[in-house]
Specification:
TRAF-like; 2 domains; Apoptosis, Tumor Necrosis Factor Receptor Associated Protein 2, Chain A; BPM1-6; Potassium Channel Kv1.1, Chain A; globular; BTB/POZ_dom; single chain; 5-stranded antiparallel β-sheet; alpha+beta
């Protein structure tokens, strides 16, 4: 029962409530490899690299990478990088998880996602069940070796990131254990990070790139946009020299200024700007297209929800 209340025959009725929420712990693991291992002379077709064991959602996992393709379907994967996630423990019942793989080139302290937008599409995300120990799921043809090698200098490190969300059913957040923990803990005010980042956007302090959209200029911060959108990461860093040569200016010709302004607002604050009812539907339609273009999944879901109401 999600909520209960009771009343005695006299006096003010007592009230109580409980909540049931989805239990979905998440985390990721990075497997770093030398890009030279993608050369068939270094690691032959059918041989694999295995990550160290790591824990997400109370379960132990490993990443399996075949730098020059697996042999599950004969020689079909030759010339490809094959990537799998393996459950590395015995389980009493199947473990259901959402899995996402990405490959990144490391430069200094920044991870730059080096894929075209279609490679970053949601086909690289899947939900599946791991029935027993050594169950593995992934992609036999995740990406072509030559496409990966084009993005890095010889010998540069590559990072294979596996992000996992484990679906553990539901839990009662108002159980006695949770009540005791809540009573004993100090009050912590809600996060105001979105407010600070919103102020950073509006103040333009430290902006290192300017977007020109429909004749309007929008100063922004590369590091924020790279963190929020893998497509921005590609566009901003792969074209850094060109944009810097032009004074850090990036032109966007196929988007309305108010749509890009709303996109920036969401990137910094994780919220939509205030919109008047008559224009909300039209703006959400255009913003949905922009969210898909920049691979901002949460923004897409919010726009779809508003359009379905």
């Amino acid at each position: 029962m999600l909520a209960t209340s009771s009343a005695s025959g006299r006096g003010k009725p007592s009230r109580s409530s409980s909540a049931i929420v989805a239990d979905r712990p998440s985390g990721y693991h990075d497997l770093k490899i030398d890009s030279r291992l993608l050369d068939a002379m270094s690691v032959p077709h059918g041989e694999f690299l295995l990550s160290s064991a790591f824990t997400v959602g109370g379960h132990t996992w490993r990443i399996i990478c075949y730098p020059n393709g697996d042999r599950y379907d004969s020689d079909a994967a030759v010339g490809y990088v094959s990537i799998y996630l393996k459950l590395d423990e015995n389980v009493a019942k199947p473990v259901t998880a959402q899995v996402q793989f990405s490959v990144m080139a490391e430069k200094g302290a920044l991870f730059l996602v080096r894929w075209r937008k279609e490679v970053l599409s949601t086909k690289k995300i899947f939900v599946t069940s791991f029935a027993r120990q050594d169950s593995s799921h992934g992609y036999s043809k995740f990406a072509k070796n030559k496409d990966v090698l084009k993005t890095v200098r010889q010998g540069d490190p590559l990072t294979i990131r596996c992000h996992i969300i484990v679906f553990n059913g539901s839990r009662d957040v108002q159980s006695p254990k949770h009540k005791q923990a809540a009573a004993a803990s100090a009050h912590v005010s809600p996060s105001n990070l979105h407010t600070h980042l919103g102020d950073l956007l509006s103040s333009k302090r430290g902006a290192d790139v300017v977007f020109v959209v429909g004749g309007e200029a929008y100063p922004a911060h590369r590091c924020v946009l790279v963190a929020r959108s893998p497509v921005f990461a590609v566009e901003l860093f792969s074209s850094m020299r060109e944009s810097d040569a032009a004074g850090g200016v990036v032109h966007i010709d196929d988007m309305e200024p108010q749509v890009f302004q709303a996109l920036l607002h969401f990137a910094y604050t994780d919220t939509l700007p205030e919109m008047r009812k008559p224009e909300e539907g039209v703006l959400c339609q255009h913003l949905l297209v922009a969210a898909d273009r920049y691979d901002m999944e949460r923004l897409k879901l919010i726009c779809e929800d508003k359009l379905c109401r």
